[in-house]
Every structure is written in structure tokens, then in C-alpha cells.
Amino acid sequence: MNSFGAWIVGLWLTYTAVLIVLSRYAKKKAESGEGGDSFWVGGRSFKPWMVFVCITGLFSGSSFIVVLELSYKVGISAAWYGAAEMVHVLIIALLLIANLRRLKMVTVSGLIGDKFGRLALGVSGAITAFTFPMWSIATALAFASALHVFTPLSLPFSIAITGITLLIFLQAGGMWSIVLTQTANSFAFAAMFIVGGIAFFIEPGFDGLAVLATAKPAMFSPTNVGLQVIIAWFATFLINVFVAQAAFQMALSCRTPEEGRKGLLMAFGANIFFIAFGVLFGLSAAAVVPGGARGMIAIPQYLAQVLPAPLVGVFFLGIWAAALGWGAPCQFSGATSLGRDVMGAINPSLSDERKVLYTKYALVALTLEMILLGLMRSENASWWNILAWTLRNGSTFAPVVVALAWPLATRRGAIAALFGGFISGLSWYALGGWDPVNFFFNIHPVFIGMTFNILLMVVVSMVDNAGQWKIKFDQSSGRKILGLVSTAAMFLLGFIALTQFSWLFQKGLIGLNLFLIVAAIFVIVMIYVVPIKSGVTSTGKEVA
User: Within a 10 A sphere around the Cβ of 216, how many other Cβ atoms?
Assistant: First the structure.
């Protein structure tokens, strides 16, 4: 191990030891409350700054990793990933947080189960739990890559160490462990930005970026990553607004909806710095260490050329903080769905204390899954993020929306949507050879999964409720406007699909166009298709 590896490992072990010590305090906080709320949602006692550090570590840290890696390969267009995430946080803050807080929601799968019963609870919880380690591995790969470059540790072993470390302190205090970790991570982020800025001014500086712009002008094109990929990012994050379970779980730990919203808006503003620095450091590595196959391998190579070992260690302490900031909430939220919701679906009589215990067992299972995923595919961190969104969002989106807004939704419709969205998205990826950018029939799998998810939810529910619904045009002015806009969008998008098919295919927009048509139909149905009688239940049966 060289001096760079010694500093990275030394600072990493010291920082992690501090977090584990702090987790003892988190354990006391988690055990001070009654039932499972203190463990799962911090007893709903968080202040705005706590929500701020949690959301910043969750989304801004992960965005930084993805932008850092992608900007090395595609340049400034990687910033669109972070921009999509910012829009996502803003919508949650402005439109959703108050209603979800009033519902005292803990998990998305729990919300689905409350509406559609035990089977839907178990299926949605299992899908949610299965996909969260995919998000965890995406950022864990970044730090594991640094360990692999500077130490004799293999990449799989580095990933295993990362996953086990997450397990150790999450087991202790649940959501309280997360808020303490995210607070410490905020200081690590600041130190990383300062060190990265020093590296930039040493080499390549602004003159070096100018040389890069001359040699590779595509790196400074805002659409170099590809229009379809950019659209997929925004579409995925917009869809994720309704199913962002880890974000909900942290923001809904607040004392009041207003304080939760304030913390989210603070995190929205902070993300600007993560995007800007991610692009800057990625471009710097591209200028100094060109031609690398992986951004997360080139970054440490670049820093080792321009900085002394202690500063490189500080920078990668920030990368470790980003891995923790995203991976810890993902692992914990997935474990909550598995231990609380899936086990609760199997045995509804379980006490909260038993569900907390099962959540801790679930953390072990998801750690093993995370390590296995790292062995399967380690060359593309952002790919795991998109696959997870395709599978989870393609399964749970429509059931969540109708649970909040459409009384005709049925249990069979929810089950069909959960399975249909998951299987169709996964199958489309398989048909495309699991390629991160080249998809079967040039359609991104996320649009296939979402389309089947919505169609199955609507069609099966309406068949289940045959004879019990009617079309009602007499709606409030706001609903009428939304219905008219959706109807106009449906016809316009249909016309574009019929007349501009070749152009849509070339640009990779066929899937998006199809999904938007189906989404418009979805909105129209929820507005105008209503029960004949108000006593229709989620099983599609009328009650006396």
C-alpha cells in the first residue's frame, strides 16, 4: 500500500469509528421512544436542519457521484442529472410533504398496503426492498474504486467492506443513526470541495479546460450525453416524486409539515454546489488523465498527480461520505419495507418491537444483496440507479397515485400493476442486452415499465368495477382545466407519434411519447371516471 492508500484507509477508518461511536447515542435516542416510530422515523421530532442534512446527503451526495463519473466521459451535460434531482426535491417540498405528513406515512409500500391489502403490501414491500441495494451499490462503487486503486484490496472486497460498515451503524439507531451520519457527512463534503478546488487550480486550471474544449468540444455540449438519456433522467425523477420512499421517510420525520418543507428547500439550494463541483472535478480529470474507461478510476489517478497524499485522503473521505449519505438511507428504507411491511403482511399480528427486530435482520439480507450486485456489475455506477428506478417506479407508481386520488382502484388492479410493471421493465432491459445506453427498439425500459404499470392498474380496476362506474363531466373548475389539458396533450402526442415516427425513433423518444400518451389517459380517467355510488371499495365491491 502506498502513501495515498494509507491516508485514504486511515481517514476512512477513523471517520467510520467516530460514526460507530455516535451510533451508540443514536441507539439511545431510538430506544427512548415508544413502538417503532422512533427507529423508523425518528419519533417525528426532527428539526428543519436535520431534514436538510438528511436530504442533502441522500440526493446531493448521490448526484455528485453520478455527475462526477459521467462528466469525465461526457462533460458538462452530466449536470442534467443533478438538475433533474433538484426539480424532484422541489416538487416534493411544494406539493407532497404536507399531505403525506398528515397521513403519518412511513413507507410507500405501507401506503399501498393500507389501500390494497396484505398481498399488495407484501409484493410492493419486496420489490422496494429488492431495488434499494441497487441504489446503494451505485455510490458504494465510487469509494470502493478509490480503495482498489490505492490499496491491494480487490474491488469486490472493497465493496463488501463498504456494505458491512453501513450495516454496523444502521443496526444501532435506525433513523437517528442516519441523521447523525448525515450531519458528519456535511462537514466531509465541505472539506472535499475545498481540496478539489485546490487540485483544480493546480492543474488543469481554466487554461487546461480551454485546451480540453478545443481538443474535445463535445465535452462542453449541453446534450453530449444524449437527448434520450437526459429525458429519461427527468422523467424518472418526476415519476419518482410519488414514490421517493427514502426521502419521504426522512422528511416525514419532521415535527411539522412546514419544517419538513423548509428542510427540503434548503437541500434544494445546496445541490447547486454538488452539481457544479462534480462537473468541474470530472472535467479536470478528463483534461489531466484522458482516455480512461471509468471515471471513478480516473479521478483518484488525477488527484494523485496533483495533490499530496493527505489531501487526496481528505477528498476521498468526502467520497466515502457521499457513499454513506446515499447508501445508508437506501439500505435502511429498503430494510424498513422488508422488515416492517413484508413481515407485517405475512403476520399482521406482529408488534412494532418485532418489526424493528425484523428490520435489523433485513439490513443483513440487503447488505448481502448489495455485495452480490457489486460482484455482478461494477463498471457503471449510474446504470444501477436507472435499473432500480425502472423496476421500483415501474411497479409502485400507479398504485400510489390511485391510492391517493382514485376511489375505483382495486386490489387486483394494484397487484397486476405491481407485477406487470416490474416484469415488463426487467424484460425490456434483458432484450437490450442490459446495455446502459443502447436499448431494445431504442426505447428506454423505464418507459415500458411505467406504461404497463398504468395500463394494468386502470384496465383491471375498471373491469373489476364493471357496472359500478360512470363518466362524469361536471367537475370543479380546476379538475376541468386539468382534464382539458390532458385531453389536448393526448391528441397532440398521438398526432406527433403518427406523423413523426421516424424522427422519434432516431432521437430515442418513442418510449417517452407513448408513456406521455398513457399518462394523459391516466389523468383523464382519474378525473372523469367516478363511482356510481360512493360506497365502492378497493376490492371493487359495493358496501351496504
Answer: 16
Output phi, psi for 517, to 5 deg: -65, -45
Produce one character per residue of 228-262: b if its CB has 16 or more CB atoms within 10 Å, e if not. Answer: bbbbbbbbbbebbbbbbbbbbbbbbbbbebebbbb
- Residue 529, strand partner residues: 471
Taking residue 351's Cβ as centre, other Cβ atoms within 10 Å add up to 10
Helices (H), 151-256: 155-173, 175-202, 205-215, 227-240, 245-251
> Residues near 492 by Cβ (< 8 Å), separated by ≥ 6?
none
pTM of the entire structure? 0.80
Q: How far is CA 159 from the centre of its chain?
A: 20
Best CA proximity match to 230, nearest among 520, 509, 514: 509
Angle at 73 between CA 195 and CA 304, to 5 degrees: 35
| Region of residue 374 (phi > 0: left; psi between -120 and 50: alpha; otherwise: beta) | alpha
Helix, strand, coil shares of the chain, percent, nearest 5, are: 80, 0, 15
8 A C-beta contact, residue 432 and residue 439 = yes
- For 250, the grid coordinates are 426522512
Using an 8 Å Cβ cutoff, are 448 and 232 in contact? no
Banded model confidence at residue 40, pLDDT cuts 50, 70, 90: low
CA distances from 239 to 236, 363, 364, 441 (A): 5, 26, 29, 22
Cell numbers representing residue 201 in the block: 487550480
Q: Please measure the distance between the N-terminal and C-terminal CA atoms of the chain and give it in whole angstroms.
A: 74
pLDDT tens profile 426-471: 999 899 888 777 788 888 888 899 999 999 999 999 999 988 999 9
- String of DSSP letters for 442-502: G--HHHHHHHHHHHHHHHHHHHHTTTSEEE-----HHHHHHHHHHHHHHHHHHHHHHHSHH
Nine cell digits for residue 252: 416525514
Greatest Cα pair distance, the chain, in angstroms, is 77
For the four alpha carbons of 446, 451, 454 and 460, in that order, the dihedral sign comes to negative
Query: How far is the C-alpha of 106 from the C-alpha of 121, rounded, in Å?
Result: 13
Question: For 59, which DSSP code?
Answer: I
User: 495515498: which residue's cell?
Assistant: 4
Could you report the per-residue pLDDT of 484-521, keeping only the tens digit for each?
Answer: 999 999 999 999 999 999 998 888 789 889 999 999 99
Question: With contact defined as beta carbons under 8 Å apart, do 270 and 123 qualify?
Answer: no
